[in-house]
Write a structure and sequence with these properties.
single chain; about 350 residues; alpha/beta; 2-enoyl-CoA Hydratase, Chain A, domain 1; 2 domains; 15 helices; 8 strands; globular
Length: about 350
């Protein structure tokens, strides 16, 4: 079930919904963070959170939890038909959390997939152990149980609880109502290897549109006209963001090349070549131009310790770990100069 996260201001409170498997968070992060920023600007501090998820990436769940915690006010939550794995970590950070009577609640040790040589695997294993410790402490703080007792619960694998048991053990605070289970939710529960059988309690409204209204931030029974209007609104917003990003990137490239010509680092005849290089890889091109001495630079400074051209070009193929090991300052600089490249490198590394 695809991840859908929404945030709206209702009655002065942030109404946040997390529906679906917590993966590919970055795909929806920009829109979500935009709405969160707007809510903060409106002075919203309290949060009403709804979670219906089988879990997913512990790192993405931690990031989502941190964003929700940043409101600084009271955070109350409600669980849908399933709150499992990384979803329970977010739930445990709430001041109060309520389950539906038919909610399935599952905790276990964080999972990870390792790849690489023995040093990389040892490093990743240490990170996973730290995440397990964090989860155990979070559960202990929420329930009042000892960390040893929590560790014993999850050592054997998945530990499933119904709503009543989750309240008795202190993972949640109360039970009220019954969660709606549609076909997508049922499949998500079955895919999570739940030992409990579930049945569909609500059929999804058939629409002549090919879009899921919930994914668009609308109610499940939204009309075709409402869906069309929302798609138009989102498309206009996306076009505006993409245009602004393109203009900003083009301006940075233009200034970089203009400054290089002004300082007589490159001849005018190479402007097109360097413009293409900077458009494709701004950070590396900037490092190359920074390493070329200006025609007005004193000879003593021209002979300083600057990276060789072949070294700079080789960095085009560097991974996140290469930058962190060989040029951490350059990696930090990349965060400001080429945030898209930095995000792609870091996401690939931490996945």
């Amino acid at each position: 079930m695809a991840l859908v996260i929404t945030a709206e201001n209702e009655g002065g409170k942030a109404q946040i919904k997390i529906i679906g498997a917590i993966c590919n968070w970055r795909n929806s992060a920009e829109d979500f963070e935009y709405h969160i920023d707007q809510l903060r600007k409106d002075g919203v501090t309290d949060v009403e959170l709804y979670i219906n998820t089988s879990g997913g990436s512990v790192f993405e769940a931690a990031e989502i939890s941190n964003i929700i915690q940043s409101f600084g006010g009271v955070i109350n939550g409600k669980g849908g038909a399933i709150v499992a794995s990384a979803g329970t970590y977010i739930a445990s950070k709430c001041n109060r959390f309520e389950l539906s009577s038919n909610t399935q609640y599952m905790i276990h040790k964080p999972h990870a997939v390792f790849q690489g040589n023995e040093d990389k695997i040892k490093s990743d294993l240490k990170l996973l152990e730290n995440m397990t410790t964090d989860y155990i402490k979070t559960y202990a703080d929420k329930t009042g149980m000892t960390e040893d007792a929590i560790r014993e619960l999850i050592t054997g694998g998945d530990y499933w609880m119904n709503a009543t048991e989750a309240v008795e053990k202190g993972f949640v605070d109360s039970v009220a109502g019954e969660a709606v289970i549609d076909a997508e939710t049922m499949l998500m529960i079955e895919a999570s290897s739940s030992p409990n059988k579930v049945r569909i309690t609500q059929q999804k409204k058939e629409s002549t549109m090919e879009f899921n209204p919930v994914i668009l931030g609308l109610n499940a029974d939204a009309s075709d006209a409402e869906i069309t209007a929302r798609i138009t609104e989102l498309k206009a917003f996306e076009d505006k963001i993409l245009l602004a990003q393109a203009n900003e990137a083009a301006a940075k490239v233009s200034k970089l090349i203009a400054d290089a010509v002004k300082d007589k680092k490159i001849p005018v005849r190479l402007v097109a070549t360097y413009t293409k290089m900077a458009t494709d890889d701004f950070a590396t091109t900037q490092q190359i131009l920074d390493s070329i001495p200006s025609a007005t630079t004193p000879l003593s400074q021209q002979l300083g310790d600057t990276p060789k051209l072949d070294t700079l070009l080789a960095r085009k193929d560097w991974k996140y770990a290469d930058w962190a090991e060989k040029d951490p300052k350059g990696l930090t600089k990349m965060m400001d100069d080429d945030s898209a490249r930095f995000a792609a490198l870091s996401e690939s590394y931490f996945e």
